[in-house]
Specification:
about 210 residues; 3-stranded parallel β-sheet; globular; single chain; binds 3-phosphoglyceric acid
């Protein structure tokens, strides 16, 4: 099992995918991998999500597949059974943090405020999602967190695009960024896999050249 730090260090961008049809999971993962992506998050926002995670973790060993949008403690078991290799929640509660510690799968809690950061620290978590990044103070808030909590490292998501990603990736407390912009839902719906690969290469190229 990889550590959270290893997973968040696999590449600069984690695509956040809301899967409408499980059948799209494998071709999508292949299109992402062809563009250089090694890890992806499937959000638990659709009925197809769990089947998609099952398919991906069984059949695409080249991709590290996480489950996102876990909003209650019982979600941990469900996605663990489906094979999720990491688990992300958009926020934190005592019960999420306790379940995350016990589940045996790398868990990345989401925080947006100083108090939530303190709660995560009290539970022993140092690798966090910052969500919704742009609405919760963006780069300025992460700089503030850096001054307050030098031990914390983040994966910001929420409102990140090609236009602002390098501002985030340039921060010393950001290991990688996540977002849905990198794979527009329309491209999945239309099965435009080559366009997915092209967009991913474009974004990774920018991340690679602009980040020191
Ligand atoms: C998430 O769950 O991380 C977010 O939905 C991603 O935010 P975005 O859609 O604004 O990229």
């Amino acid at each position: 099992m990889q550590s959270v730090k290893d997973i968040l260090s696999l590449g600069p961008i984690i695509p956040v995918i809301t899967l409408e049809k499980a059948e799209d999971a494998l071709p999508l993962a292949d299109a992402l991998a062809a563009g250089g992506i090694k890890t992806m998050e499937i959000t638990l926002r659709t009925p197809a999500a769990l089947d998609g995670i099952r398919l991906l973790t069984a059949e695409r060993k080249n991709m590290v597949v996480g489950a996102g949008t876990i909003t209650s403690a019982d979600g941990f078991d469900k996605v663990k059974q489906a094979g999720a290799q990491f688990i992300i929640s958009p926020g934190v509660t005592e019960s999420l943090l306790s379940a995350g510690k016990q589940c045996g799968v790398p868990y990345i809690p989401g925080i947006a405020t100083t108090s939530e950061a303190l709660l995560a620290i009290q539970h022993g978590f140092e690798f966090l999602k910052f969500f919704p990044a742009e609405l919760a103070g963006g780069v300025g808030m992460l700089k503030n967190f850096s001054a307050l909590f030098s031990q914390l490292k983040f994966c910001p998501t929420g409102g990140i695009t090609q236009a602002n990603m390098e501002d985030y990736l340039g921060l010393s407390n950001v290991l990688c960024i996540g977002g849905s912009w990198i794979v527009p839902a329309k491209l999945i719906k239309e099965k435009q896999w080559e366009e997915v690969t092209r967009l991913v290469k474009e974004s990774l190229g920018m991340a690679g050249t602009k980040v020191a």
